[in-house]
Amino acid sequence: MYGDIFEEEMNRETVFRDASKLMPEYVPQVLVHREEEFRQLTRFFKPVLENRSSQRVLITGSVGVGKTVLARRFGAELEKAAGSRGMNLTYLHINCRKDRTIYSVIAKILQHFNPRWPYYGLGPEKLLNDVVNYLNSRDAYLTVTLDELDFFVQQNGPNLVYSLTRTAEERGGPNRISLIAIARDKSFLRSLDAATQSTFMHNVIALDRYSASQLKDILLSRIREAFKHGVVEEDTVDLIADIASRWGDARFALELLWRAGMAADAEAAGVVTPEHARKAKAEVYPEIKREVLRDLQLHEKLTLLAVARKLNLSKRAYAFTGDVEKTYRVVCEEYREEPRRHTQFWEYLQRLNALGVVDIKPSGLGQRGQTLKISIQEVPAEWLEKEMEKLLREK
Ligand SMILES: Nc1ncnc2c1ncn2[C@@H]1O[C@H](COP(=O)(O)OP(=O)(O)OP(=O)(O)O)[C@@H](O)[C@H]1O
Ligand SMILES: [Mg+2]
Fold it and tell me: Does residue 192 share a domain with residue 80?
């Protein structure tokens, strides 16, 4: 019987040619409406290729305006252009929301060059020295993108940027490490030292939100890659572009498109209609990024599930930390995980708060503000509960 189900699902009529082309990680060959910004970035990096100097650039813009994809696309071209000029340059893209400590960012750089590099138990300074030695010994260059750096600096302070910009300089010789920082806006620069601040300040590429017609072009170019020919109705594209233009967010537009395709497949409709887009809209919330939920660590996921479940069950606006912690223990049991201690649970909550997934404030109850009240403001608790269960099942 299950064999039949398998075959049936495999043979099911689908509107997709390749749905993976709609996933947030996919880097399209062509970036629509970002030629000027790409050119600007190239101009900033010209001296790196011509004079073998180093560069620092900051890319800013709100959610889903193409910061990550611009940097990745640029990095690929930069490597190519350097190679054809006989320059050994590596581009590395690091997401600082995922690699959350200075140590793990630098270890990532080292490991890129040699996965077997012995780095356990060594401090970040030592590791960074190793990177510089490595680059020197091979006459090699490195451009690192520190993506979602604002979030990282808020949590860890300015040391990472400081070390990456200074280590080589302090040792004399050429600085072989260039940086592309990505952040929502420039405000995080204030917590960096004056010298670093000013280099970034002079090299800012600010990406605007996309208009409806720009979003339509982005959608159309992705539809050609991801869908079978002619299955997405033009009205559907217009509607999705309109909906997403309120935020100017291409990620939201592409997610709507993907879910609309899924809705069409669920009905074996063969075409993606505006009604499928409307259905999709009912289950996507641009306020919370899917990747943010997906990239949470296991116990952060369990904690978030506990918050969502508590709020969904109680139907109240707020949940108290003590109650959520009890729910967390139940959730852990359900997923056969050993619950972590109170202090760690506390840290998970703080991190969820920092990511903007939950909102925490003092309850006014208990001693010295020990009790906090937690709310979920951006999405229905019921929706979040289901999402978290889905993600935890995938593990
Ligand atoms: N100009 C574009 N052409 C084609 N696809 C694009 C373009 N801009 C964005 N996208 C796509 O939209 C999605 C979101 O883009 P991206 O991840 O680069 O946004 P972001 O600015 O980094 O957002 P965040 O601040 O949330 O990290 C990705 O799937 C990306 O491929
Ligand atoms: Mg990004």
Answer: yes
Residue 66 Cβ inside 6 Å of ligand 1? The answer reads yes
> Could you tell me if 187 and 271 lie in one domain?
no
Q: Is the minimum distance from the CB of 277 to ligand 1 under 6 angstroms?
A: no
Cα–Cα–Cα angle for 395, 348, 319, rounded to 5 degrees: 105
Q: What is the pLDDT of residue 366?
A: 60
Residues 161 and 89 in one domain: yes
Of the chain, the end-to-end C-alpha distance in Å amounts to 26
CB 142 within 8 A of CB 176: yes
* Whole-number Å distance between alpha carbons of 205 and 295: 27
Structural domain ending residue among the three candidates 185, 206, 227: 206
Please give the Cα distance from 342 to 319 (Å, whole number). Answer: 17
What is the pTM (predicted TM-score) of this model?
Answer: 0.90
Q: In which domain, by residue range, is 115 found?
A: 35-206
Residue to mutate (ligand 1; options 36, 68, 205; most atoms within 8 A of CB): 68
Residue of 22, 69, 207 best suited for mutating to test ligand 1, as the one with most atoms within 8 Å of CB: 69
Domain boundary residue, one of 227, 248, 281: 281
Q: Please give the distance, rounded to the nearest whole angstrom, from the Cα atom of residue 147 to the centre of ligand 2.
A: 7
Residue 149 half-sphere exposure toward CB, CA atoms < 13 A: 33
- Is the C-beta atom of 322 inside 6 A of ligand 1? no
- Report whether residue 349 contacts ligand 1, using a CB cutoff of 6 Å: no
Q: Is residue 9 part of a domain?
A: no
CATH code of the domain containing 313? 1.10.10.10
Per-residue pLDDT of 112-162, as tens digits, reads 988 777 767 778 888 888 899 999 999 999 999 999 999 899 889 999 998
**156 shares its domain with 45:** yes
What is the pLDDT confidence band of residue 241, given thresholds at 50, 70 and 90?
very high
